[in-house]
Small ribosomal subunit biogenesis GTPase RsgA
Amino acid sequence: MGPDAGGSPLRKREYDEDDVRVRPGKGSRPRTRRRPAHEDAVPAFVVAVDRGRYTCLVGGDITETGVDGGRDRKRRGEAPRPVTAMRARELGRKGIVVGDLVSLVGDTSGRPDTLARIVRLEPRTSMLRRSADDTDELERPIVANADQLVIVTALADPPPRPRMIDRLLVAAFDADIEPLLCLTKADLAAPDDLVARYEPLGVPYLVVRKGGDLDLVRERLEHRLSVLVGHSGVGKSTLVNGLVPDAGRAVSHVNAVTGRGRHTSSSAVALELPGGGWIIDTPGVRSFGLGHVVIDNVLAAFPALAEGTVHCPKGCTHRGEECSLDAWVAEGHADPMSLASLRRLLASRDGAPDDD
Ligand SMILES: Nc1nc2c(ncn2[C@@H]2O[C@H](COP(=O)(O)OP(=O)(O)OP(=O)(O)O)[C@@H](O)[C@H]2O)c(=O)[nH]1
Ligand SMILES: [Zn+2]
């Protein structure tokens, strides 16, 4: 834990561990080619990634004023321009994902058939990751800099998959991203069971239906960078289209640049909300491996319980006999329901990653 963690049990982690370092020349050997300083590099926001091509938005926006920059820009009547870029060699093997803030050099005009170069990756505030499966510790970054994970679940048709929701919550807590349950198709079933399941965890939720009022959703999304996940058929496209009236156009624009159609797209796409803020629409998730998850990170999201783990044996899974959390709860320091819920979340890592 870093010295900046203060009194908060919520661990602030470093996400730029593999940041680009300009290596000094070996020994005293003079370097034959000096790398330009890239003082003229322009900041950009990565909105789509496809086969080595990055669609970046350039122009007085998110890169200057954060996720809420859109409003200022709109007030000034400026539109950001999409620029296609490739990564510069100096970035090394570092992955760049949707949501990343980068710096571009070269042709940043955004004119057809031009290609800029990404020379810098800004430090990230968060990274949503998954692994291929629960035994695989190799994590795949999905989206950078998100501060909210919107778990879109239909109340019926298709029926909710609580274990998948649990797993997504674990991923959110691990990444220090706030979860939001968005329960769709409220015209088909009541949300009571799901709400009862997630209330002890303090997970906020919203209930929506097609054609219904989306104001509460907008309120939760405004001025933030939210990732939307949900499996096929839950009504995520319906929701996105309701929130971003020209979503179809924005996505097809991105796909015109990357050369992919909407339904073949296997990558996430960032869309700006009319009221400020961004949503990142991800393709339907079928599985969400949690092999990379650090239990302590998940626990950190529950301060009352995290505090009680000081008496746990080293490497405690917090699920066995030796765990001190039972005593902690018995002493009244935390709510038994939240401990049971936390244990259920931790247990969701057992079994196949695509189970219900
Ligand atoms: N009854 C009901 N049907 C809905 C609601 N929202 C969406 N649907 C329907 O559910 C189906 C799936 O909706 P989509 O928005 O395409 O779902 P999706 O999650 O984007 O699914 P994919 O396109 O497969 O990724 C469509 O037939 C929608 O019309 C709702 O609130 N109530
Ligand atoms: Zn324990």
About this structure: The pocket of zinc ion (ligand 2) is lined by residues 309, 312, 316, 318, 323-325 (CB under 6 Å). Confidence is low (pLDDT under 50) at residues 1-29, 260-265. The longest helix spans residues 162-175.
